[in-house]
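Title: Comparing notes on inverse folding

I've been comparing how different people in this forum approach sequence design from structure. To keep things fair, I'm posting one structure and asking everyone to reply with a full sequence. Here's the target:
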């Protein structure tokens, strides 16, 4: 018999629009851009290249027809990036959605695998 105390539930959830996925990776990337003010710093924290990070953002922007990141070219003050209001709304809604999915899956898991 399976020992329920050793079981853990794992899952992945994402949103898809015209073949472009918004999931944990893009969610985390946008959070890090917001936190660091930089696409390159966000990419470094995720162990990815700037080109790969910018490519993910650009692809989502083009496919969804919504601007997610505003960039500022360097100079004396340096460059930077910030999230648009649309991106902030998207990551906030996705976070709330993710929490609700997690709560629901945890309850379903308990109902089916945890002895009461």
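Reply #1:
Here's my take.
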């Amino acid at each position: 018999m399976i020992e329920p105390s050793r079981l853990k539930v794992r899952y992945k959830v994402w949103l898809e629009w015209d073949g472009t996925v918004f999931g944990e990776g893009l969610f985390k990337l946008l959070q890090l851009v917001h936190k660091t003010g930089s696409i390159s710093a966000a990419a470094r924290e995720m162990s990815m290249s700037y080109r790969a990070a910018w490519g993910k953002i650009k692809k989502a922007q083009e496919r969804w027809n919504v601007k997610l990141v505003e960039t500022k070219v360097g100079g004396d003050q340096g460059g930077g990036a910030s999230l648009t209001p649309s991106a902030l709304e998207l990551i906030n809604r996705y976070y709330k959605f993710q929490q609700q999915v997690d709560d629901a899956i945890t309850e379903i898991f308990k109902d089916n695998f945890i002895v009461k």
